[in-house]
Amino acid sequence: MEQPSIQPVDVQLQKLLDDFYGSGHKGLIDMTPQEARDWEKELFQPDPSPVAVDSIRDHQVPVEGGSICCRAYDPDSQTPLPILVYFHGGGWVLGDLESADSGMRRLATACNCVVLSVEYRLAPEFKFPIPVDDCLAAVRWAADHAEELGGTSGAPLGIGGDSSGGNLAAACAIVLRDEGGPSLSCQYLVYPVTDADFERGSMIEQGEGKLLERSGMEWFWDHYCPDHAMRSDPRACPIKAESLQNLPPALITLASHDPLYDEGLAYALRLQDASVPVQVQIAPDLIHGYTGLVGVSDRCAEEVDCIQSILRKMIHLQ
What we know:
Layout: H1 11-22, H2 33-43, E1 55-63, E2 66-74, E3 83-87, H3 97-111, E4 114-118, H4 130-144, H5 146-149, E5 157-162, H6 164-178, E6 184-190, H7 201-205, H8 214-224, E7 250-257, H9 261-273, E8 278-287, H10 298-316
Parallel strand pairs: 3-4, 3-5, 5-6, 6-7, 7-8
Antiparallel strand pairs: 1-2, 2-4
Helix pairs in contact: 4-6
């Protein structure tokens, strides 16, 4: 699998990094989960002019012990469309429907599909495997309510997510394969967490000064799955699955300046070795989280447009 040569960080992103680290802001590992949630909202500001979507509706989805809210974005409520169930990132600790809103609007419009954004319960209040189980419940609910969502009844669903959301999407794809469905048309994994190995090359080489840091990933894992023995479960670390055969086609997008780069690439190679169709899109000049930084970097916006054009073809190739 060909990898582009790493390039300097995009100029606009580098300014963001310089400003952030020059401010003396304390690091993630020194924050409580609530402080980290407040910091994330400060850093990733909502889009002041979000993309218009034809229909946006909230749905309550039953899960073990209660219900979760899932938000459906339909760019054309007059036409049945494919459905993509999406899990936001944030290290299983951060993020919600509101922080994901502008990205989901853009995704639904660019891919001409219904996007179901899932507000799975967060760690440390809800540790592994509860977020995985919530996401599985959302996929199964979407399959059962496809027409209500504006989708095509009985058609395969796409599944996707960024960072920890990519981890949840990959884990769900494995579980659904093993449990006989519902059928998935594709998996869209944006700089996904696939492992809990902090000694990979990119973890060390890109582990400081790029917003997501090696120490931050350890902090996230310790909140989400503090029992190290459970990290061998493929629902926690999809790369630990014995086999990746018969999984849905994958689009995996990576950033060269990302601690998660190596584990994302390793997962793509394992899928390829298992004869799963895989497309890998690598941004040699971007950092982790770039899909949420389109408002501060033209280069991020360009890359998001590129990957969503690829995804649109995958989603509609059913």
